[in-house]
Amino acid sequence: xxxxxxxxxxxxxxxxxxxxxxxxxxxxxxxxxxxxxxxxxxxxxxxxxxxxxxxxxxxxxxxxxxxxxxxxxxxxxxxxxxxxxxxxxxxxxxxxxxxxxxxxxxxxxxxxxxxxxxxxxxxxxxx
Length: 127
Fold this sequence. Notes:
about 130 residues, alpha+beta, six-stranded antiparallel beta sheet, 9 strands, about 15% helix
């Protein structure tokens, strides 16, 4: 069985399209956009920790946004699709597409990691 077949078995069709085929969910449609609990945002595919809730902010763009990653589990790649030059972010562990990072975020980093909800799972902090 190919790795693509393994991912197709593990993920929903929508999750597969976003994480394995560099897709994008519709803005304001993601389940984690309005998540406000304290916790960790993990890679949907391999559960690597990516972002913490205390770095999340409302960018008004329609996707969960973070001003910094929680670990070094995010890789950066040049993306020249759609007649634009952007920086794609992917999971370092499994290369799942997460979204893009932009230099228009808040202090202290000035970065906005714009992430598809479909590429994340959320693990609330234990009380």
